[in-house]
Amino acid sequence: MHHLGVVHRTVHRADPAAVEALSRFGVATVHEAMGRLGLMRPYIRPVYEGAKVCGTAVTVLLQPGDNWMLHVAAEQVREGDVVVAGCTTESEDGFFGELLATSLRARGARGLVIDGGCRDVDDLRRMDFPVFSRAVNAKGTVKATPGSVNVPVVVANALVNPGDVIVADADGVVVVPAARAAEVAEASARREAAEEGKRERLRAGELGLDMYGMRGPLAELGLTYVD
């Protein structure tokens, strides 16, 4: 499949109700509820404290040191999208800043996840435009080589298809395949309900050793206590 120099205009986005449901849960919960899948590598970090986002992916394949395709992608953004950008090879240049954020916001974008660098962090914080990137870097980029928009991309070791759900917060970024969005939202809700019961017991002073029935297995493995 030829993935360079193509823009797919048709994106089958995850169901908006499922996206809204997923937005209520943290990345760790969603990742666990999905069977411990979908996490991006932990070097992708929010560029300012408190950044969080949930939305449907418009994907971008960038060339190193070249942000042309982010401008091409802006035209394909719809309300509720998150732009998700991978690169043909590792690059930490500052692909994205306040001007592109202004453009994406005008199109309805909720944020950006990029396996590359980002700059204008103070402006992005003021705008509260959430960006998750591999680096903060003032180094500028050129517009010389086409990449692609709305093709499957691998971003920080996670496969992202256009229309998948992106959930990102202080703990990282998780990708939920569009077809699984409703099911994963339901599993996340069940997980949170179960955790609340455990939280109450731990708050009351009960030990995980007892709550999870760990003492027997530890004794069988020979754990001994010495006074």
From TrEMBL:
Keyword check for Cell membrane: no
UniProt EC number: 4.1.1.112, 4.1.3.17
Keyword line: Lyase
Reaction equations catalysed: 4-hydroxy-4-methyl-2-oxoglutarate = 2 pyruvate; oxaloacetate + H(+) = pyruvate + CO2
Cofactor (UniProt): a divalent metal cation
GO molecular function: 4-hydroxy-4-methyl-2-oxoglutarate aldolase activity; oxaloacetate decarboxylase activity
Record's keyword annotation contains Oxidoreductase: no
Domain of life per record: Bacteria
InterPro entries (UniProt xref): LigK_PcmE (IPR014165), RraA/RraA-like (IPR005493), RraA/RraA-like_sf (IPR036704)
Subunit composition and interactions: Homotrimer.
Family membership: Belongs to the class II aldolase/RraA-like family.
Biological function: Catalyzes the aldol cleavage of 4-hydroxy-4-methyl-2-oxoglutarate (HMG) into 2 molecules of pyruvate. Also contains a secondary oxaloacetate (OAA) decarboxylase activity due to the common pyruvate enolate transition state formed following C-C bond cleavage in the retro-aldol and decarboxylation reactions.
PANTHER family: 4-HYDROXY-4-METHYL-2-OXOGLUTARATE ALDOLASE 3-RELATED, BLR3842 PROTEIN
Name by which UniProt lists this protein: Putative 4-hydroxy-4-methyl-2-oxoglutarate aldolase
Name of the gene: ligK
